[in-house]
Design a protein that fits this description.
With about 130 residues, the protein is mainly β. The chain has one domain: Jelly Rolls, CATH 2.60.120. Helices cover about 0% and strands about 50% of the residues. The protein has no helices and twelve strands. The protein has a five-stranded antiparallel beta sheet, with no helix packed on it. The chain starts with a strand and ends with a strand.
Length: about 130
């Protein structure tokens, strides 16, 4: 299973922190869609895969557990992401993914994708893995 991650450099100062999330030189993706996800503690999102959509996830705040299943090989992986370092995680097509908030508070995460959600041409296939 080819899952890519990119650790992003965080800029810290007395006011807090900032990070460049999208630079075409770092993330060579034809961005068509950016989606903000806020999930409550203990909840699970996903449990699906896409046939065409290539997604990058960026956790802004909290801790999450990604459960991933390669639909071609049957290989399964579990990855945990936390507040630092800020990491981009790529989920290519045909990888079933479930995202669980393992924090005690809401998580904030961005999805950056190469295609918009289109209800007239759905690309989301449900598959329960968590």
């Amino acid at each position: 299973m080819e899952i890519k991650t990119i650790e992003l450099k965080t800029q810290l100062d007395p006011r807090g922190w900032s990070v460049d999330i999208f630079k075409r030189s770092v993330l060579p993706l034809d961005v068509k869609y950016i989606y903000l996800i806020i999930s409550k503690p203990g909840t699970v999102r996903g449990n699906h895969y896409h046939e065409r959509k290539n997604e990058w996830f960026c956790l802004i705040k909290g801790r999450v557990k990604f459960t991933l299943l390669d639909n071609k090989t049957g290989e399964k992986k579990v990855l945990e992401l936390g507040d630092n370092p800020v990491t981009l995680l790529n989920i290519p097509p045909l990888i079933t993914h479930a995202i669980e908030n393992i924090s005690s508070e809401d998580i904030y995460m961005l999805e950056i994708a190469n295609q918009e959600f289109d209800p007239s041409n759905p690309d989301t296939i449900k598959k329960q893995i968590v």
